[in-house]
Amino acid sequence: MLQNKHILLGVSGGIAAFKAAALASKLTQAGATVKVIMTEHAKEFVTPLTFQALTRERVYDDTFAEKDPEKVAHIDIADWADLVIIAPATANLLGKAANGIADDMLSTTLLAATCPVYMAPAMNVNMYNQPAVQQNMETLKGRGCRFIEPGDGYLACGWVGKGRLAEPEEIVAFLEAEEKVHTSLAGKKILVTAGPTYEYVDPVRVFTNPSTGKMGFAIAAEAAALEAEVTLIAGPVQLDDPPGVKRINVTTAEEMYNEVMNLYPSTDIVVKTAAVADYKPKNILSQKAKKQDGDMDIPMERTIDILAELGRQKAAHQLLIGFAAESNNIANYAVDKLERKNLDMVVGNNITAEDAGFRSETNRVIIVQKGQEPEDLPLMTKTETAKEILRRVEILIKRDA
Ligand code: CTP
């Protein structure tokens, strides 16, 4: 469940900070990208280099060390995070968080975070039992903050009692279980279309395009892994069924239209990856056309624009994601498509680039959403691209919830 998650690990200043190093390592091994923010006091116990080496990410400790002039670091990291885990959360950190105090990088970032926040407290048993600390924890719980209870036992200060930081394995297991429950795609009905369509001229000739369906199949597979109920409407492609996905095969744009429209009313999210033909021959010959001398004209007519029709019929709870295969001006066309077809997101890709688009194993896309600047994603595999797209869909679902 933590694979590809963006995890912000906040480390505050207690002796248990040494266990946070093991936690950073385990989260990284679980496939998450882990960024660490340390308080000044945490650095008395462990060095930033420890976390940098374990996570292979820069460690943050100073609100004003703005290394990238294009970003405001504490806002950027807060926006980036899928979840925040503070381990250890000291009495001081809990007090600041409960009272909205923002006087260092960690407490300031915490105020800017809108994702789920988890706290793993660690302190002396008497401090833990202090009404002030207990009250701060209750306040934070009331605001949706989730707690990973400390363990009972021998404490570094010499006392025996409740206050030991939960073991890193326990924290990872807790986060995995919670994230599973809180995956916003779980149980959502997703319709993905993929591949090309065939528009027949006669029984042996078709108009089609070089789409392989890989992008759509990757989205269907990833959505199923996130426990969505996925139906994949696939044009003619040479790909195996993704696990846990219901597949419906179609050939023409009209067949795709009929299948999509049939399922649309009971669907929450549609991802239209398919490269649907915009035109089809006006007349389909029932017998194979014999070749003649000279040129041949084939009258063509428009197919139905499935995505535009979905946009027209869209209900308030539905999300529509379109693709824009372009050879130039990608961002502009994507923004135009977003508005014209009443979409929530458009994924634009440059089909002329060698490492993106049709037949490629990788993709380099631009994501356009309402009211947001276009986002240029780096070159990545189609599976990684699918994960990035779905991560943004999850944010849209959470926003609308
Ligand atoms: N699409 C569709 N039905 C069609 C044609 C396209 O649903 N008959 C969908 C595709 O699945 C894709 C999006 O529309 O999600 C973009 O397709 P594209 O052909 O690139 O865009 P158009 O809006 O048709 O614009 P243009 O042809 O001018 O590029």
Taking pLDDT < 50 over at least 5 consecutive residues as the criterion, the unreliable ranges are none
Residue-averaged pLDDT: 93
Hetero groups in this structure are: cytidine-5'-triphosphate
The radius of gyration computed from the alpha-carbon positions, rounded to a whole number of angstroms, is 26 Å
Query: Which shape, going by the Cα principal axes?
Result: elongated
What is the CATH superfamily classification of the largest domain?
A: CoaB-like
Count of the domains: 2
How far the N terminus sits from the C terminus, by CA atoms, comes to 21 Å
Report the top-level CATH class of the largest domain.
Alpha Beta
Name the strands of the widest sheet in spatial order: 13-12-9-14-17-18-20-21
Named CATH architecture of the largest domain: 3-Layer(aba) Sandwich
The number of E-state strands comes to: 22
Q: Tell me the fraction of residues in β-strands, as a range.
A: 15-25%
CATH topology (level 3) name of the largest domain: Rossmann fold
